[in-house]
Design goal:
The protein has one domain: Ribonuclease Z/Hydroxyacylglutathione hydrolase-like (Metallo-beta-lactamase, Chain A), CATH 3.60.15.10. β8 and β9 form a beta hairpin. α1 packs across α3. The longest helix has 12 residues. By secondary structure, the chain is of the alpha/beta class. Strands 6-5-4-3-2-1-14-15 form an eight-stranded mixed sheet. It is built from nine helices and 15 strands.
């Protein structure tokens, strides 16, 4: 199983999950051209994408969707009813999904899990291929008991490490925005992710990746330090800033490979 982080952060998010010839995109939060160029860095083309799953309707998760579908092909797009009610994109294939139900896509089985964010009906996703299980969980202000249950037993966790609490508190954002980020409908801070991992880490877990880092209120170093504390240094961890991409190969272990973002105009 391979997981490729194409984009991560408030400027755009997209993750590619592949197994057994099946390729699935989670979110299309950067331009269609960037998605195409970044896919090519991982030896993939847009026409290889079998389905797209949206976590929620915020622009940093759907920005490139309409043009991507129009320019390349009509891959099925799946998301919750609440998210569809806010997404101004119509597709010929795909449809609504419900949290807690399994959906087969080729060699993958996909399950949505409700998150806590200021969006219509946001979700995280768990992917299984019969051998491995991985989760993509960002944009949630709290880590609920449901998330703990659904993400337990994963081989790989891609999880939000949005901000450092002190950096957010003393940073440049207006107070109202700081309150939103730190609220139950905002984003997970490093300390919250560390606490969540204490609840869900298990013997199957082979690697943890921090996502959706704030460029103003966090650093890769602080996010990684927090993940390492949670894992006691026993398994590999990393965090992906907006200036990088990441390839993760999941087998008997998780192997990380940092990939540079292609230059604009590439």
């Amino acid at each position: 199983m391979e997981v490729d982080v194409l984009a991560s952060g408030s400027s755009g998010n997209s993750v590619l999950v592949r197994s057994g010839g099946t390729a699935v995109l989670v979110d299309v939060g950067v331009s269609a051209l960037q998605i195409k160029n970044r896919l090519e860095c991982f030896d993939c083309v847009p026409e290889d994408v079998d389905a797209i799953f949206l976590t929620h309707e915020h622009s940093d998760h759907i920005r490139g969707l309409e043009v991507f579908l129009r320019r390349h092909h009509q891959a099925p797009v799946w998301t919750t009813r609440g998210t569809w009610s806010q997404v101004p994109v119509k597709t010929r294939t795909g449809g609504e999904i419900e949290s807690g139900r399994d959906y087969p896509v080729g060699s993958l089985r996909v399950r949505a899990v409700a998150t806590s964010h200021d969006a219509a009906e946001p979700v995280a996703y768990v992917f299984e291929d019969g051998m491995h299980r991985i989760a993509v969980c960002t944009d949630t202000g709290i880590f609920t008991n449901l998330l703990v249950q659904r993400l337990a037993g994963c081989d790989l966790l891609l999880i939000e490490t949005n901000h450092d609490a002190d950096m957010l508190r003393h940073g440049p954002y207006p107070w109202q925005l700081k309150q939103r980020i730190a609220s139950r409908l905002g984003h997970l801070g490093n300390h919250q992710t560390e606490e969540a991992l204490d609840q869900i880490k298990c013997t199957q877990l082979k690697g943890v990746v921090g996502l959706h880092l704030s460029a103003e209120n966090n650093s890769t170093r602080l996010a990684v330090e927090s993940l390492r504390r949670a894992m006691n240094g026993c398994i590999p961890v990393t965090a992906v800033p907006r200036t990088e991409m990441l390839r993760v190969s999941v087998g008997s272990s998780a192997v990380f490979e940092t990939v540079p973002v292609p230059p604009k105009g590439y």
